[in-house]
Amino acid sequence: MSIVDSQNSMGKRSSVMGFFRAIVSSNVFRSLRWRPAAAIAGFVLCIIVLAAVFAPWLAPQDPYDVSRLDLLDSHLPPAWLADGDVRFLLGTDSQGGDLLSLLLYGLRTSLMVGVLAVTVSVSLGLLMGLLSGYFGGLTDAVIMRMADIQFTFPAMLMALLIGGISKSLLPLAVQDRYAMVVVISALGVSHWPHFARLVRAATLTQRNKDYVAAARLVGHSHVSVIARQILPNVLNAVFVLATMDIAFAVMTEATLSFLGFGMPTTQPSLGTLIKIGYTYLFSGEWWVVAFPSGLLVVLLISINVFGDWVRDYFDPKLR
């Protein structure tokens, strides 16, 4: 290796090390050092998210591949118990499916539904809140009365209503195929008023600022003022609420699936696995319901604890 190549490689190495040192010494890591619970929750959450993203590569078995299922392997306990099989670390279900693989794919489905449902809620809430707060008057009255009417219904009941109507309109043959779309839409529509009220309150504060008045004076359109001046100043609060709302979406999806209004058994989610495992709980096969329930609890606690830290970090009054 030439001297120039050696110097280049050393320079790249030092730049990478400098990058990681900058991250570790940043305000985020300094804040997390004072909140060990939030740091642990963030670490656990990262592991869970990575496991869900790389589920096709981490799972020992593809739960969607029926040809790989063997009924002779059904109802096996975890590998460390008597009669366990080393091929199935967490045991198997009634079809002989590997429970670890089902957990990874179910976790992936639950997180995907949660993130996409919150995306729908944020999109609707941002649009309605910005329009309501910026224009005021009749627009504000109509949008806020819509939100008030929806607030009279619990989010779970609204999601059940939307899911039930969608199922009645869709043909039976395609219900399973569009189940995820229906659940995401139901959860997204049921929770947009929370974001709309938050964005409206922030917009009412921002629209009277000098920089917004200056943008209007120079001839910027309403769309330009909203998108360039107001929207960036309300995103922090929306991001914090969205982080914590993912836990609500995941929990609601699990509840809907447990009640039979969420994901079908052909597309396993944590709620579906809990529903299936509950039927075997009193027969002694506790692992079928215990592991999905435990993973759901760990996921929700991690999101909530980490979300509390995110809220405190982005709130200047608490710094």
Automatic annotation (TrEMBL):
Q: Which UniProt keywords apply?
A: Cell membrane, Membrane, Transmembrane, Transmembrane helix, Transport
Is Cell membrane a UniProt keyword of this protein?
A: yes
Q: Which residues form the ABC transmembrane type-1 domain?
A: 107-307
What Gene3D superfamilies does UniProt report for this protein, alphabetically? MetI-like (1.10.3720.10)
Database matches in SUPFAM superfamilies: MetI-like
Q: Superkingdom, according to UniProt?
A: Bacteria
Q: Which parts of the chain span the membrane according to its record?
A: 37-59, 111-135, 147-166, 178-199, 234-261, 286-310
Q: Which GO terms describe its cellular component?
A: plasma membrane
**Its membrane topology:** Multi-pass membrane protein
First-listed, main subcellular location of the protein, grouped into a coarse class: membrane
* Pfam families associated with the record: BPD_transp_1, OppC_N
User: According to its UniProt record, where is this protein located?
Assistant: Cell membrane
Report the source organism.
Ectorhizobium quercum
- Family under the similarity heading: Belongs to the binding-protein-dependent transport system permease family.
Q: Could you tell me the Gene Ontology terms of the biological process aspect for this record? A: transmembrane transport
The protein in question is named ABC transporter permease
